[in-house]
Amino acid sequence: MTKKILILCIIAIAILSQNQLTFAHKLLLDPISEDAIVVMYADGTISTDMTIEVYNREDILIERGKLDANGHYTFPKEAYKIVADDGMGHRLTWLVGSPGVKSGGLSTYLKFGVVILIFAGIALYFKRS
């Protein structure tokens, strides 16, 4: 029984540590003025390789560029939608004038529910063996 509890604890630590790693790499976009944004990861790091695409109301690409060294990007007044893409799977879309956004990922409650289901499945497995 002690061996089973140890295995369960190791699995729990592995799952919970992955949750923190996922959070650290969420992509965040915040407007800093009427014509500028800052884009960074949740841990505060910035990627100057981030591609920014600016679209007008007709969804036509009007500008493409990169972030500066501070993670800032200034866009033209015709901008309606901005897409930030780091080329490694982090991508977000922001409508000009709306509040800032963060890239997807599962909500905390959904992650908690998944972890509970995993623990329940492990408990059933150990109970039967």
Overview of this structure, please?
- With 129 residues, the protein is an alpha+beta fold.
- It has one domain.
- Helix content is 34%, strand content 30%.
- The protein contains 2 helices and 8 strands, in the order αββββββββα.
- It has helices spanning 2-24, 108-128, and strands at residues 27-33, 36-41, 51-55, 61-66, 72-74, 81-85, 91-95, 101-102.
- The strands form 2 sheets. It has a 4-stranded antiparallel β-sheet with strand order 5-2-1-8, with no helix packed on it. A 4-stranded antiparallel β-sheet has the order 4-3-6-7, with no helix packed on it.
- A hairpin with a 2-residue loop joins strand 1 (27-33) and strand 2 (36-41).
- The N and C termini lie close together (11 Å).
